[in-house]
Write a structure and sequence with these properties.
Chain lengths: 272, 72
């Protein structure tokens, strides 16, 4: 273990949440550039802005849409997440999210719960086709990249910023390199501290982003907010995006199956 | 004669290997009470709901965390 090295830190709000970047041997300008990258890409993949790529795709009515390289990677990651979770992490739950009133960013005000129709989400690979720099979404379908985007961006950011950095985008985080003292990046995980080195972590919860009796985490099997019996799951995996997928899958599986799923896919986990 | 001896030797070698393998396998039966791999280093409440489970791939520390994973 080497002596503690000065850690450069940068905190900001983006993606509708709190973000933090940490780095050793990186400048504050590097971290600021990281913030700009998050904001710029976040504006392109949000479903709430009429100027975003996702907005265009969600309203394409079955037509092919040209997409950026980043959007292509994100959509491919969403398909991979669908397969990794056996269909439980399904970005095509947008119609159900709209049905429960989640029609605008929570920063713009609390959603109004509605009695709209919720239905099971479609098979993602049946409705979303991704090709080189273009994508097609079946008419009547919509996607929300939500947590997938945060985990994926944390992974990309950690690669871009330097060799010894930590990117935390709203709790979806990726730690790269040996950390400030050479034994990993110290990260609060449940009631303990874990030293992450080239690993990711995430928490999935139904305690936040909720209004009335409704919360944002949709079970694609029912189209309704999850009632699995679990309220919060935190995991450590190899990447931030995998952590997001595994945490959400475990939460949706519920207490009966979550432990076995985490044992197969995570390096550490906390279920509540 | 030489051909016969070679065939006999090969047969004996094959039979000997078979018998030795059978003896070895019998003496090394799977232990049903062997620990699961990878072993769980630290587990509170046996990985059930409310417990933290940490495998050998993750180290625990006693320093102040710089950040945490949290619900957002």
């Amino acid at each position: 273990m080497r002596p503690n090295t000065a850690v450069q830190a940068h905190h900001f709000e983006a993606l509708g949440t709190n973000c933090s970047l940490f780095g050793v041997d990186v400048s504050s300008a590097d971290l600021l550039r990281g913030e700009f990258w998050v904001r710029e890409l976040g504006a392109r993949v949000t479903r709430f802005s009429e100027r975003s790529e996702l907005w265009v795709l969600n309203r394409s009515k079955g037509d092919w849409v040209d997409i950026s390289l980043e959007m292509e990677s994100l959509l491919r990651e969403a398909v991979r997440a669908y397969r990794l979770s056996a269909g439980l992490v399904n970005v095509a739950v947008l119609p159900s999210m709209i049905a429960i009133g989640y029609t605008r960013s929570l920063g713009e005000g609390v959603p109004i719960a509605t009695a709209g129709e919720s239905r099971p989400a479609p098979v993602l690979t049946d409705v979303l086709t991704v090709q080189k720099r273009r994508a097609r979404l079946e008419p009547g379908c919509g996607i929300d990249l939500g947590g997938i985007a945060k985990g994926w961006m944390a992974d990309r950011l950690a690669e871009q910023l330097g060799r010894n950095v930590l990117a935390n985008l709203g709790g979806d985080l990726r730690a790269a390199g040996p950390g400030p003292a050479g034994d990993g990046w110290p990260v609060g995980f449940a009631a303990t501290t874990v030293m992450l080195c080239n690993q990711g972590a995430a928490t999935s919860s139904v305690r936040r982003r909720r209004w009335g009796e409704v919360h944002h985490l949709i079970d694609p099997r029912t189209g309704q907010p999850s009632r699995s019996g679990l309220e919060e799951v935190s995991v450590v995996t190899a990447t931030g995006c995998d952590a997001e997928v595994v945490a959400k899958t475990a939460l949706l599986l519920g207490p009966g199956l979550a432990t076995a799923y985490c044992a197969a896919h995570a390096q550490a986990w906390w279920l509540q | 004669m030489r051909s016969f001896l070679l065939k006999l030797g090969a047969t004996l070698l094959t039979l000997g290997t078979t018998v030795a393998s059978a003896v070895y396998v019998t003496a090394h039966l799977k232990n049903p009470s062997a620990p699961l791999q990878p072993a769980v280093l630290a587990s509170q409440q046996g990985g059930q709901v409310g417990g933290v489970t940490i495998t050998p791939g993750v180290r625990q520390g006693d320093v102040q965390p710089v950040t945490s994973t949290y619900a957002s």
